Amino acid sequence: LIQETKVLDAAKIYSLNQGDLEALMKSASTFGNMMVSFCSRMNWTGLASVLKDYVKRLGFGVKAEILPLMEIKGIRAARARALWDHGFRTVRAVSSARPEDLILALPHMGPAAENVARSMVTSARLLLEEKAADLRKEAELLLGEEHSSDNESSFYSQ
User: Fold this and answer.
1) How many other C-beta atoms are found inside a 10 Å radius of the C-beta of residue 11?
2) I want to staple 123 with a disulfide (CB 3.0 to 4.6 A). Which of 3, 73, 80, 87 is the partner?
3) pLDDT, tens digit, for every residue of 22-67?
4) Cα 112 from chain centroid?
5) SS3 sequence, the chain?
6) Contact criterion met (CB below 8 Å) for 80 and 70
């Protein structure tokens, strides 16, 4: 499923009904999230990071390359793959795209295509702004810790 096989096709391959396979995916995703939490609490950050991406892939049923596009509101696996295949490979690329270009990349959006495309661009911009704000906060925390440890080391050197 993380190779972007359709759930119905995978269910047929393994002689399962689609609902059972979807329930199994949900259970595996839940367990994976518990493992991420456990690894984080144990301070196994590397393993937690790898598992976190894998759990996202399992939940979305996609390859790793399109995970960033899946974070954009309104974009699911099929749209993310179509965007990727048409050269929109980053959130920034979608955020700076013209709605007309997205419509060409996603021809099956229906009569509301222009509104959907504008919404995707807006959502991508908001996502970038959120990520930038998070990075600023993280940098402030790191710089604050660095300054306090500098003060402590100068205190101990006296």
Assistant:
1) 19
2) 73
3) 898 889 989 999 999 999 999 999 999 999 988 988 888 889 999 9
4) 25
5) CCCCCCHHHHHHHCCCCHHHHHHHHHHHHHHHHHHHHHHHHCCCHHHHHHHHHHHHHHHHCCCHHHHHHHCCCCCCHHHHHHHHHCCCCCHHHHHCCCHHHHHHHCCCCCCCHHHHHHHHHHHHHHHHHHHHHHHHHHHHHHHHHHHHHHHHHHHHCC
6) yes
